[in-house]
Amino acid sequence: MSLPPASAMSKQQSKESLKDKVKGIFGLGPSRPPSKQTESKPSELIITNEILKELGPECGLHNRIRIINQVCDLAKSKKFEENAVEALWTAVEDMLQPEQPAEARHAVLQLLRAIIQGQGERLGPLRAYFFKVVRDYHPCNEDLADRLEVFKALTENGKDITYLEEDIARFVLLWMDVGLTADFLHVLVNLVKFNSCYLDHNVSHMVQKICLLCNRTTSSTDIEVALQVLDAVVCYNCLPSDSLSVSFSTLCRTVNVKEFCESCWKLMRKVLGTHLGHSAIYTMCRIMEDRYGGLHGGRCLAPRRRVLRGNGPVGGAPALRPKNTPTLVLPSFYKAMTSPNEVVSYEIVLSITRLIKKYGKELQVVTWDILLKIIERLLQQIQTIGSQELKMIVHELLTTVEELYEQSGYHGSSERFFSLIEKCSDKRPESSVLTLISYRAHSIQPAKDGWIQNLHKLMEKFFSAGRLSFVLSTNRQLYEEELIEVVVIPQLSQIAEDRDLHVRKLATQLLVDLAEGCNTHHFNSLLDIIEKVAGRSLACSGSFEGEREMSAESPMEDVKTAVLGLLEILQSKLYSLPASHASRVYELLIAHLQLHYKNKYCSVIASSIRLQVFDFLLLMRADSLHRLGVPNKDGALRFSPYCLCDMGETEKRASEKKPAGSVSPPAGSPAPPAPASSIRTACLPYSLAFSVLLQCLKLETDWKVLKLVLDKMPSMLQYKVLILTSPCSTDQLCSTLCAMVTDRLISERLRKTPDGFARMDVQLAVVPVLTALTSYHSYLEQSRQRELVQCLETGLIYRSAKQCVVALTMCTVEMPDIMIKLLPALIVKLTHISATVTMASPMLEFLSTLVRLPHLYANFVAEQYVSVFAISLPYTNPSKFNQYIVSLAHHVIAMWFIRCRLNFRKDFVQYITKGLRSNALLPFDDTHEQSSFRARSTSLNERPKSLRTAKVAKQGPSSNSPLKS
Question: Is 33 helix (H, G, I), strand (E, B) or coil?
Fold first, then answer.
């Protein structure tokens, strides 16, 4: 701002007071129109003599401070005229004397900061003078915050030190002695980044003081900024080698603070990436080996425990890498463990675990030797220290090495490593012990003396079915008998009581594999053990409704393994000698199924066992020579030369002394001497399986199991040799099936049924079995045959009508004595079934079959004949049915018309003609009277006159008959 002309200025001074003048100068008075000069040049603040006088010592202190505050406000936004800064400083310089009140010194420092901020580019060499003011300020320990603000303004937070270069390093060191705060450290970060070359000779002292701050302070902010300074020194300067020890000791201590752990890691990686990398590793090793935990003049900068602990995470993993040769660092780790210390050992374990996980496959034998020494000492220490956390991570380290071994990436001594595992095997997980056993088992070979005894000792110490299976599979052909007798039976005889499911399951599978190929007397001993496992309870712990689907690791999975193993054994033993082996396995399977229904097992796994066993039993077949057989995996049926479905004369006489349905004596009891013939042949009576099938039909609660049995029974019943040579009670089977059809509550008994399940679904599954049973009519009592036919009649009104009609067709052929009495009523019932495409074929085939059996309808009256025509006529409609059905319907009508009595034919002609017209002819007539022929022909007026009073025909020939189900 420029001043007005002198004449105007003198006039203005006479009219305005000093106060108004000061306000006008500082722009606080009323606004004035800008002059031409102010429009052409930037405004400058003119410091007049009056202002300087107000700031002079002759004015009061409070007045001087007030004016200083006003000048401060303007100095930040306006530029001073030339030499104004010097004039202002001369006026207020005396206020910085030590004897002045703190308020005065504070105001002057604020003014100095404002001038530097506003006039910075115009100060020039004055910057050096103001820097000297800040540096030599007395009293030196007071007003630190304000002095620092002036310094920050003077250097732009440490970025610009023009005119200050020579003295800046000495100033930094002096300031760090009196004012080492986070605020100053922020400035120091910039000083290092932008002016590092002027700090070279003093970096060591700076690092020393910063590290002391980190070790002593409790302020997280101070530590954070101190780490930033160290990072700047590493990145923008050069960390002196003599500062490595103090720096690393500080980092090792600070890394224990969770929030600074990552920062310390990154900083250490940067140091190792410089030319000081090897020196850094050497320094860390000296720190670990030094009993003080730090190497700064023999003085411990931090407690040894914390320094050694931090040395692991900070320096350990970066240093422990192949390019840095871990053999340089690992001996120091080992020496640091001389005295047991939980935290030190903990960090060492973490470091070498990281090393092995990342670089394990690249480590060589020498490195592994040192690592194994460390692991051995760790295993010794966890016995005395007693820390659960340390024990846990040491065992995790062992697991890491084991995983590397499994991946063929371990290049150390396997014998030495597994010796360490064996020492702590009681604390290791199962997978670890299995790996140990696998290693030991490979050394057990027939070429070594006493190898079977060594195997037995190994199994006594570490029982492992998997390893035993491996040894057996590789040496079975030559040493099977010795291995079974010396190792298998002694070790596995009580496997059913073992608490570990996995062990029980593996051991059971091993026994099954051995038994399947064993043809000696040891077979019964193996089967005794399998029987114990199969006899374990399958009871469900909770209610069926609340039961969840069990996984493959169900507590009952071993039982399933045993039973399915028996199925495999039986399928194999059917075709090998001695035949008695197959007989015993067969009886064990039957006894197991009987346990299911005796104990009401309803668990998921129990149902799956029953499903597979019944599936096998229903696949058994017998040929004309009474030889048993089952389909193989390819579906090919092969019959056994040794196993029969009936007994010879000698066996029959012996069986007469036994109660019916008995099975073999319990396992372990002495068996009576068998005749010579029984060695080559054995009887597997199907009556045993048949009795369990009957139990299934009566007691089964799982619909999936019951449906499997019902679906496969018709195929099984086709093999009459299998059923009749035992013999099996087909009469009882028929009774049971009929009870299932008439049981209204059967759907409530069943579980695991699909959506929309009803009693009808059971009837649909039962009818095919009843149909197959009709061929056994000679083995059914008269009352049972009648019950069978009545059950089929009951099913005519349900969705099972088609199957029932097919079954009734069979009955007319197989059981004429029963059907002759039931046919009249049956024919009338068939008129209630609608003429549909589904029912067309079975209904017409039933009538076509019946017409060829004149002895069955010899006593038919007009009512039955009318019913036959009423059933057949709707199927002559070519618009609804295919040509085969229409032709068959015409054939049936013609045949029945020919076979009926002569005196009935006259009355039937008109009835049949009307029916044919309304069904067979009308679709080809385009007249408008088509609907009249569709009138219901069941009216009594439309019937033959001779039948109107009989009221016997329930349905006319029209497809629109109201007599529908």
Answer: coil
Residue-wise pLDDT tens digits, 577-604: 888 999 999 999 999 999 999 999 988 9
In 3D, which of 811, 825, 936, 947 has the Cα closest to residue 873? 936
Q: Please state the three-class secondary structure of 72-117 as a single string.
A: HHHHCCCEECCCHHHHHHHHHHHHHCCCCCHHHHHHHHHHHHHHHH
What tens digit of pLDDT does each residue of 789-848 get?
888 887 776 777 888 888 888 888 888 888 888 888 888 888 888 888 988 999 999 999
Q: Which residue has the tokens 């008995």?
A: 662
Residues sharing a CB contact under 8 Å with residue 313, sequence separation 6 or more, in sequence order? 255, 261, 264, 265, 347, 350, 351
E strands present in 602-693: 621-622, 627-631, 637-644, 682-683
Q: List the one residue out of 383, 452, 387, 376 whose CA is nearest residue 418.
A: 376
Left (φ > 0), alpha (ψ -120 to 50) or beta: where does 297 sit?
Answer: left
* Strands, sheet with 621-622, edge to edge from the N-terminal-most edge strand: 621-622, 627-631, 637-644, 682-683
Helix (H) or strand (E) segment spanning residue 164: none
Strand-strand pairing, 627-631 and 637-644? antiparallel
Backbone phi, psi, residue 550, to 5°: -85, 145
How is residue 321 written in tokens?
Answer: 């890498």
Of 680, 674, 790, 692, the C-alpha closest to 732 is 692
Q: How many CB atoms lie within 10 A of CB 34?
A: 10
The residues with which 79 forms a beta bridge, in sequence order, are: 44
3-state secondary structure of 939: coil
pLDDT digits (tens, 9 = 90+) for 905-939: 887 888 888 888 888 765 544 443 333 333 333 33
Greatest CA separation for the chain: 160
d(CA 943, CA 642): 68
User: Beta-carbon neighbour count of residue 327 at 10 Å?
Assistant: 15
C-alpha closest to that of 933 among 909, 957, 897 = 957
CA–CA dist 103, 108 (Å, integer): 9
- Other C-beta atoms closer than 10 Å to the C-beta of 920 total 21
> Within 553-664, where are the H helices?
557-573, 579-599, 604-617, 649-656
- The owner of tokens 């020492």 is 423
> Which residue is associated with the tokens 């460390």?
374
Main-chain dihedrals φ then ψ at residue 200, nearest 5 degrees? -50, -50
The distance of Cα 211 from the centroid of its chain, to the nearest Å, equals 49
Measure the CA dihedral 869/870/871/873, to 10°.
70
CA distance 510 to 492: 10
Residues whose CB is less than 8 angstroms from the CB of residue 897 and which lie 6 or more positions away in sequence, other chains included = 869, 905, 908, 912
Q: What is the mean pLDDT of the chain?
A: 77
Of 488, 464, 458, residue with least CA distance to 475: 488
CA dihedral 755, 758, 760, 765 (to 10 degrees): 60
Note the pLDDT tens digit of each residue in 451-487.
445 554 555 544 544 455 545 554 444 455 666 665 6
Q: How far is CA 549 from CA 59, 536, 553, 606, 701, in A?
A: 98, 20, 11, 12, 16
* CA distance between the termini of the chain: 115
Q: What is the DSSP letter of 34?
A: P
Three-state DSSP class for residue 44: strand
3-class DSSP string for 824-839: HHHHHHHCCCCCCHHH
Task: From 222, 140, 142, 146, select the one nearest 188 (Cα to Cα).
Answer: 222
Give bridge partners of residue 628 from the DSSP assignment.
622
SS3 state at 702? strand
**CA 455, CA 469: separation in Å to the nearest integer?**
12
941: amino acid identity, one letter: N
What is the C-alpha separation between 840 and 847, in angstroms, rounded? 11
User: Distance between CA 887 and CA 840 in Å, rounded?
Assistant: 12
Which H or E run contains 818?
helix 816-830
